[in-house]
Amino acid sequence: MIRCTTPRFPTADHELAEVRSLRPMARRQRVTPRPALAVLGAALAAALVVSAPTTVANPTDIQDEGWGAWTGLSQGMVGRRRVPPKFDQPTEERRQDTTALRHADARRQLQRLRSAQNKPAAKQSSALRGSVQRGKGKGKQRGKGASWKNTLADESTQELTTVETTPELTMVEPTPELSTMVATLEATVLQAEATAVVPPNAAWLRTDAAGLYAVSVADLAAALDESADTVRAQASAGTLSLTTAGRPRSWYFDATADELLFAGEAYKTFYTDENAHHLSLDAADAQPMAIAAGAPTAAAEAPQTFRDTLHFEKEPDMFYSTWTVASEPDADYWFWDYLYGGYKDQIQVTLSIPSPSPDGTAQVRVRLRGWTDLEAGDEHRVYAELNGASVGTILIWDGFQEAVLVADVDQALLNAGGDNTLTLRNDYDLGTHPGQWLDDVEVDYDRLPVADGGALWLDDVAAGVQTVTNFASSEILVIESPTGNAVLRQDARIESDGAGGWQATFDVPTATDYLVVQRASIAAPVVAPDYPVSPSLASTENAADYLIITAPEFVGTADALADYRTTDFGVVKVVMVDDIYDEFSFGREDPTAITRFMEQVGQWSSAPSVVVLIGKGSLDHKDRMGYGDSFLPILMTTTPWALFASDDRLLGVNGDASFAIGRLPLTDDAEGVAYVQKLSNYEAMGLAGHRRAVVVADNPDEAGDFHANSDLLAEQLWGLGFSEVAKLYHPDDAVSSALADSATWDAEYVSYDGHGSSTQIGDGTERFVTVNSAAVLANPVQPIFTALTCSAGNNIAPGIRSVADALVLNPTGGAVAAMVPTGSSLDADAQTLGSAFVDYLFLNGDSVGDAVRAAKADTAGQIAGFVARIYSIVGEPGVRGR
């Protein structure tokens, strides 16, 4: 039986919801949603409807941490909303009002520091160099050269003195001890031996939209740390290499403008909208554009249409749902809009379809997904209208599956001005309330060759003569096969179109793509140095006993942790996630690059026994909502109820690791440095002579007999040599007030068994521990914490911190590490795993990471595979029990 209290009514993501009582539901339980759900209206994406008597959930209940008021609905229903902090602000304001370094800023800062390393006198922080090895008893072994000072650049000193956070995050005000620790760390790094520095050997050119890009020789020279004359000479000689996804990309050197031109196509995934192109001085992949000179092409008699494909997709705030894609771990779980039978029966979206030919047939494809599965048979029925006219046939399907509505459309129906209205309507039986998500829309159509915004990319133009009109300038470039063996068509005829504009006419020898752009519409890529990792991350020459994977924002934490753990491990290696992207996904942000990297780590001359991930991950890696808190990405795993994050899956082990795993879910570097000090203080205490444990249990119900479970655990702890085992059992004991008392947490081990959610221990009325109360604990002795509950480690919602994060990252108290689930758990399985964990932790003396790894191995086949994948360590996995 599930221990999480979650009736599966549709919300944008049920993990933003807090539920009061367990209502076990089958995967396809046949019930009718309450009509009173209509009051949620457009707030459906952030609303929760609770199946409980109104007497249980009084609207006067205390509210905190972003919950709105309980609203009494009909037929025993109540509902309220939960939203992340600052949700009332526009997205752009949220992006500006940040409490941590944005990823782009950290990237630039990392590049500045790496650039400074090339100056003769520079000594910068070792962790900033992307891949660092420290050897125990062997001197310092570094993958990339010199030791670096870590101050996060001059301007970042302020970041260590005052760190503001969102209401869900712990306020970090460094103590004098922390300041001393940082100063000592800096002094230690400054005294380290300086070695040779490897300069950048290439540059990344990052683009977003499809089009023609130009980068100046001066910018390339700065990124490559070469003279402009050297870059210019190689460009003139055609010996620069430009690749995209490992394939050569053609470029043209414009000597007059002193810049390099290349075509960049759009690259859009669930994780990024940014494409990456790699430029180097190595001539191995050099492919300068061919030049087609000669007499101008004769004027075309009539424009040729071409077949174009447009993609339309929006991903608004809170419109994500991990439970409707529960069986698809790599699904797109962010949606555009929704239909809900009886309450929202229509969606209208605008499709901008420029310059359609009046003749021909277009095809519209609408991707939908069901978010209800409540009725027998095919409950979803959706049909479409375009500009008021019915198109296609009704689409019928069932369950949470994806479905595509395909409609062939006479192009005479398309508006010549470009804006078209697509209307979706649902059909349903009286008394039923099916719901459907709108994901995206694609349109194939015959397009006239009319430039839009000074540019036009023509796909698969038929052989013949083509004319492209609607340019504001005569400075027009025509590029044939822009992403292949490109040719600059200097034989194109550029002339007035007779209506105050300009046009370009060119011969098309064989069907291919063309990019036609006026010079004023050429875009500029983001240029960044590519500092080499030596040896490459794929090389078997690498070795590590302790591996840290971090985002650029947390170089201070990585450096502090690496220095601290060098004493206990032979070789500590720090790897930047950006360097993993560079080597394993062609510079593109992609979490599966980390999985591929870890496959290669297994081939290193010495593979790590510990892997630490530093940085919070989020469902919103593309920062759609503006919280900017996805630093180190996540991968999801399937469960019977929803997708949840799994660092086991990210690292390619799926519950069967050969190394200990833990994550520091940081949103701020100073917070991480403070945690390393907390870890150091914990371990400096040594073994406890009098070991105390606290066993906390919720009241028994149909989810489990939490008191009986905790009695068994208490007996187990007595047998493991604990001197004191205190019991706090709800409702007999004042659990909330006891857990709010820091003295309760003065223990070597604390366990909780019962209901919970991502931001609290206990259900909606109990709230034994919340994010806010965890953040203010001040217990000098910090325990290892185990939560056999639901979602206590689920921190992946944008703008939200989990209760386990708040306990572990509290610099003055809380817990030193926690074994917690990221999602909904099973009672019996959690007890089996938790009991094995305690034995390995306190009987064998294993670290928390090794204990959970061994417990998963021991219980394989006894517990569900998904349970093993969602239980993880929040904190440093090498820490041991006292």
Task: Report on this structure.
This protein has 18 helices and 44 strands. Among the domains are: 202-288 and 524-528, no CATH class; 307-447, Jelly Rolls; 688-875, Rossmann fold (3-Layer(aba) Sandwich). The relative contact order is 0.12. Residues 5-64, 98-102, 117-130, 136-174 and 184-197 have low confidence and may be disordered. The longest helix has 17 residues, at 827-843. The protein has a 6-stranded mixed sheet with strand order 37-36-38-42-43-44. Strand 30, helix 7 and strand 31 form a beta-alpha-beta unit. The two termini are 34 Å apart. The protein is globular, with a radius of gyration of 30 Å. With 882 residues, it is α+β, with helices and mostly antiparallel strands. Helix content is 20%, strand content 27%.
